Amino acid sequence: MIVRHFTDEDYKKGLDARTWAKLLGYTRPYRLQVAALILIMVFFAILDAVTPILTMYAIDHFAVPRQTQGLGWFAALFALIAAGRGFAVWAMIVTGGRINTHVSYDIRKAGFDHLQELSFSYFDKRPVGWLMSRLTSDAETLGRTLSWGIVDLVWGFALMLMMAAIMLWLNAKLAVVVLLVLPLLVLTTSKFQKKTLEKYRAVRKVNSEITGAFNEGIIGAKTTKTLVREDANLKEFLSHTGKMHDVSVAAACYASLYLPVVLILGAIGSAAALWIGGNGVVAGQVTYGTLVAFLSYATSFFQPLQDLAKRFPELQNSQAAAERIFSMIETQPEIQDSPTASKAKALPDFIGNVQFERVGFAYNPNEPVLEGFSLDVQAGQTVALVGPTGAGKSTIANLACRFYEPTAGTIRIDGHDYRDMPLQWLQSHLGIVQQAPHLFSGSIADNIRYGKLEATEAEIRTAAEMVNAHPFIMELDQGYNFTVNENGANLSTGQKQLLALARVMLANPKLLVLDEATSSVDTETEKLIQSAINKLRANRTSFIIAHRLSTIRAADRILFIDHGRIVEEGDHRHLLRLQGRYHKLYTRQFLDEKETELLG
Ligand code: ADP
Q1: ∠ CA(420), CA(422), CA(423), 5° rounding?
Q2: With a 6 A CB cut-off, is 391 part of the ligand 1 pocket?
Q3: Tell me, what's the pLDDT at 11?
Q4: H-state helical runs in 508-571
Q5: Pocket flag, ligand 1, residue 518 (CB < 6 Å)
Q6: Which of 333, 334, 332, 266 is CA-nearest to residue 304?
Q7: Coil, helix or strand at residue 270
Q8: How far is residue 175's CA from residue 338's CA, in Å, rounded to a whole number?
Q9: Core-most of 100, 244, 260, 446, by most CB within 10 Å?
Q10: In DSSP terms, which residues pair with 559 in a beta bridge?
Q11: What is the DSSP pairing of strand 511-515 with strand 541-545?
C-alpha cells in the first residue's frame, strides 16, 4: 500500500506548473464556455486597442484640416464599437459567472467525495475547521480565479500584444521608446510574484488555524463554560488573531509596493514618448493625431499590466488554496483494498470468527498501544472488554472493524487476513454502537433507517420494538416522524442510545461492536437498554467495551485489558474466583451500585 501525502513543503519545491495544470483540469468539462470566454475577451481587447486609432483618425482627418466630410460614418462606427463593448461585457459576466459557479461546485464536490473515503487516521490529524475552510473558502477562491482570472489574463495579454503591434506599425522609433520599460516591468513582477506567494501562504495557514480554533471553541462551548476556561480560550484566540494580524500586514505591505513601482516605470515610458514625439510633431515628422494616439497607448499600455498586478496576489492566493485542496484530494486513504483483494472474485460468506495474531499497533510511531496481541473469538461469542481508561479497549475494537490496520501481525476474519479481502466485505457485516451515538437531523424513522436504507416502515418499527425504543417514540409528538435536531440535542441520552441500538438491530450485522455509554441514565431506561443489548448481541459476534455490570456478567468471555495486554481472561465466575483485578473492579462497582440503589 502506497501512502502519498503531499505537504506544503512538497509544493514549495516549484510544483507551480503542475498545480495550475491540475487546476485548469477542472475547467475541462466547461471547455466550450472557457473558449467562448477567451473569444469574448479577445474581442473586447480588439475594441479597446482600436479606440486610440479612431482618435488619431478624428484629429488628422477632421480636427486638424477642419472639415466634416465622412463624420457621420465615423460617428456611426464609434457608436457600433460602444455597442460591441456593451455586448461583450454582458457576455463576459454571464459566461464567467457560469464557469465560476460550476468549477467551485466541482472542486467542493471532489473534496467532499474524497473525505468520505479517507480513513479514521486522517481525521485524527486534521481539525474539522481546517477541512471546512478547504471546502468553502478555498473552493470559492479557485472558482473565482478560473473564471475572472481568465477574463483578466486574456484581456490583459491580448490588449498589450495588440497595442504593441499597433504602436510598432504607427511609428517604430516611438514604439521602441515606450516598450523599453517592459523588460524592467517583467523583471520586477517576477521578483514580486515569488515573495508575495510566500507571504500569502503564511496568511492562509494562520487563517485555517483560526478556523480550527473557532470550531473547537464553538463545539466545546459548553465544556468551556462548565470549566470556567473562557479567559484562557480568549487568550489563545487573541494569540491566533494577533499572529494573523502580523502576517496579513506583512503580506499587504509587501503587495502594496508593487503597484507604485509599476506606475513609476509606466510614467517614465510616457514621458519619453511625449518628449521624442513632441519634437517629432514640431519637426513635422509625426502627425498630431499620431502623437495623441501614442500618448494614449503609452499611458494605457501599462493599464492591463496594472490590472494583472492587482490580480497577482489573488493568483498567488489561489495557488496556495489549490495546493492545500490538492494535498487533501491527493491523500490516499491509509486503509484501502490491496490489489489482491479483488472485488470480482466470489466472496466467502461472513461467519464472524475474529482472530488477532501477534498484532502490534501504534497511532504514532514509537508509542505502541498493542504489541504481540493475540485473541481468538468464535462466531457468535460476546467478548466484554474491561479495564482502565487508555488501556487499549477502543483500539482493539477499531482494529477489529478495520478502521485502523495492524502495524504488525495479522487479523483474520473467518481465516482470511482481512487485508486480502475488500473493505466492503467486512464493513457491510459490521454494526457499531458508539458511546455517544451520532444522530442526524431528520425524523426518528430516518435515523433508524440509516442502518438499512431500503427498510420499510414496518421493519423500522419492528427494530424499534425489539430494542424497547418503540414506547418512548410513540410518546413523542408525531411519533416516528418526530424531528431530531442536529446530533439529537432534543432527545435524552438514554433515548439516543435506544435509537442507536434500533439502527443496528435493523442493519442486523454479523459483527457487533458496542461501546457502552458510561454516563448514567435512570434505572428504568438502564434496564431497557440492558435488555436491548442482550437481544442485540444474540447470534452474532460481539465486542463490547463494557461498563455495565449486567453486560459484563452476561458476556461469554471477559478480557481485562491493561496497557494493551490481556491481564485476566475468563467468564465472570472464573474471574471472581481469581480474586485479581477484575474482582476488585467488580466488587467496587457492585458496592457503588448497591449504595446508589439504597440511596435512591
Ligand atoms: P481505552 O478504550 O481502553 O480507553 P484507547 O484504545 O482509546 O483506550 O487508547 C489506548 C491508547 O491509545 C491511549 O494511550 C490513547 O491515548 C491512545 N490513543 C487512542 N486513540 C488515539 C488516536 N486517535 N491518536 C493517538 N493516540 C490515540
Answers
A1: 110
A2: yes
A3: 42
A4: 523-537, 549-554
A5: no
A6: 266
A7: helix
A8: 64
A9: 100
A10: 385, 569
A11: parallel
Place of cell 490516499: 332
- Alpha-carbon dihedral angle through residues 305, 309, 314, 320, given to the nearest 10 degrees: 110
Residue showing cell 462497582: 589
Ligand 1 pocket test: which of 361, 363, 403 has the largest number of ligand atoms within 8 Å of its C-beta?
363
DSSP SS3 for 369: strand
Atom of ligand 1 nearest to the CA of 395: 6
Distance from C-alpha of 182 to C-alpha of 154, rounded to nearest angstrom: 18
Task: Please work out whether the CB of residue 398 comes within 6 Å of at least one atom of ligand 1.
Answer: no
Could you tell me the pTM of the whole model?
Answer: 0.68
- CA–CA dist 24, 315 (Å, integer): 13
Q: What is the 3-state secondary structure (H, E, C) of 231-245?
A: HHHHHHHHHHHHHHH
Tell me how far the alpha carbon of residue 236 lies from the centroid of ligand 1, in angstroms. Answer: 26
Buried b (16+ CB within 10 A) or exposed e, 406-426: bbebebbbbebbbbebbbebb
From ligand 1's centre to the CA of 119, what distance in Å?
16
Determine the pLDDT at residue 314: 76
CA-nearest of 467, 550, 471 to 507 is: 467
pLDDT in tens, 223-248: 766 776 777 778 887 888 888 888 88
